[in-house]
Amino acid sequence: MPTDWQRALAVVAHPDDLEYGCASAIAAWTDAGKEVAYVLVTRGEAGIDTLDPAKAGPLREREQRASAAVVGVTRVEFLGHPDGVIEYGPALRRDLAAAIRRHRPELVVTINHHDTWGGTMWNTPDHRAVGRATLDAASDAGNRWIFPDAGPEPWNGVRWVAVAASPYPTHAVDVSATLERGVRSLLEHRSYIEALTEEEPEAYCRGFLEGIAERAGERFGGRPAVTFELFAR
What we know:
By secondary structure, the protein is an alpha/beta fold. Helix content is 42%, strand content 16%.
């Protein structure tokens, strides 16, 4: 992965998307002195079947802020789009272009925008919509005639968009030193995880993330890794 940048903005649909996808890499970046901010399109309020959205939203927002802090991220924003029914289109692109103009990143990170997770499992509409809108918004943010009322001055400084959890990875970050923090970051989403699986939460988080990092390492240098599909601009 490129390292000649200082500011990154991670844009995903739900609390936990970054923790399942790339928090260990974000920890490596913040350890290196880089600035990373998060933008969550929803509060994840529809994500826990046993909890009413009015209660789940604030809970998941708190868990996300705690999770971000584990990997050195203190700037976390929620755009308030409805969970589960995010619509790709100008309204979403406008909100994301405004966020990019506010944060002025060189690197933008988002979640898998492809239809499937490697052809074996259908991706969710929210992930597809947010991933594709983020790729578009990285260009929208630099054009002063597109969404002229969206935020501050245009920002044409996005050099790359990195797609986490893509089935078509091109680059990777060595997370040998930060994988444990990635596990702890995911574990902060305890309410969500306890509703998702009957497995003990720490064993579930560790097994999931270590397995992904080890499989990635088989392709990228033999060390635990987090992978990205990188688009240059």
